[in-house]
Amino acid sequence: MEMIDRYIYAVTQRLSQSQREDISQELRGLITDMLEERMEGLQASENDVEQVLSELGDPKKLAQQYQGTKKYIIGPELYDPFIMVMKVVLISIVAAMSIIFAIQIIINPVNILDYFIDYIVSFVTTIPMAIGWVTFGFVFLEYFQNVDGKDLNLEKDWSPSDLPQLPDPKRQIKRHEPLTSIVFFIILMAMAVFSSNYFGIWAFNNGELSTVVPFLNEATYNGYMLLILLILSLGVIKEIAKLVNGKWTNRLFLFTMFIDVITVIVVMVMVSGPDFWNPLFMQELVQADMLTEGSDNYQTIENIWESTTLLTLLLLIGGLVWNIIASWVKVRKGKES
Amino acid sequence: MSEAKEHLDKLTQELRRGTITIGVLSQLSKPQYGYSLVTKLNEEGIHVEPGTLYPLLRRLEKQGLLESTWDTNEARPRKYYMLSKMGAEVFELLWKEWQKMVDSLNHLIDLDKGGDKNGDD
After folding, report:
1. How many domains in chain A?
2. Cα nearest neighbour of A29 on chain B
3. ipTM for this prediction
4. A208-214 and A200-205: which strand pairing?
5. pLDDT tens digits for range B55-108
6. CATH code of domain B2-117
7. Domain residue extents for chain B
């Protein structure tokens, strides 16, 4: 009876190796018993077999019964955060690529078709990759959550003191703030990788962009790019911490301060390092017909350019202090009420 | 009316799920194989599909409530299940729990129906 073998195979192929042998023997016995009862000693026909098998039902369902617990790649508990992260990542990617596309068209409108094709191609290549990585991360989480989860849930007795505090509106971090920042950081990352050469002064000629005088030294940029990506990732980590916490706490405050300080130190090392800025910046400005050497403007701009490192540092440290004070005020406010 | 029937079916199914376990445990002080158990239970009005019972037997075995042996002496090998020592203990307790539940529920419903007859309480 080939049909019986096919049925048993359809059930057992869905089960783990260790159960297969035993269950297939048991099932065969069951089917024979059912046939025997039906036939009362007569030879079973193909038709009878079919009836018995349809009584047993869909092999998929039977296999599920044997497996007992439902298995998830990403279970119901992780599903919502999974969808949220996926949305943020996809929105960021689409935004970043669209911005790059827009910049390219402004710079070189003639090649719009090429850029458009690039734009579409980059969708095809990066979006599946992003979806893949996000999914992979969550599958990983789910797997380890299941491994620990059992012990944690059984051992830990819940008590009312475990209840989370009611959100305090003054300390609360609105979800859209960190989300917007994450999108922003990812866009900056994409631009740092793909279009750093547009970071500079744009020289227009008859309404069309003729050249860009870059701020950064193109010869050394690739080395610095890693540092820039590191800084931006630190920013993303900080925003994720805010998102997860949902409110300002002392720990979150210390953590964000820690990240901010590291960021400032890395930037300091970077901007004061050798060859970070474009060494030919002034000459290139002159070549682009934006300045004439020796003019008053030239002097002013040269002065500003030479103090760029200092200005950057001042801005950064100012920003850091501002950030720390602002967060601290939020933490304090929550405590007073 | 068909909607009421649908609900009834669903609720009955939920109720049945737990009672099948009691029914199975009650029959296994002597060894039985799966299909003989299906027939027995159905004869006694406990409706159960083989596709539900067989996996259930395995689960109970895995939990240590049942023990099994393959009998290879007959025309074809059959897997016989029987209560383990712990299984017998669990069945006794479960049986008492079940009786308590039935009593309490009957009492509760009787109370309510009695109240209806005498006007509101």
Report:
1. 3
2. B78
3. 0.78
4. antiparallel
5. 999 989 988 999 999 888 877 788 999 999 999 999 999 999 999 999 999 999
6. 1.10.10.10
7. 2-117
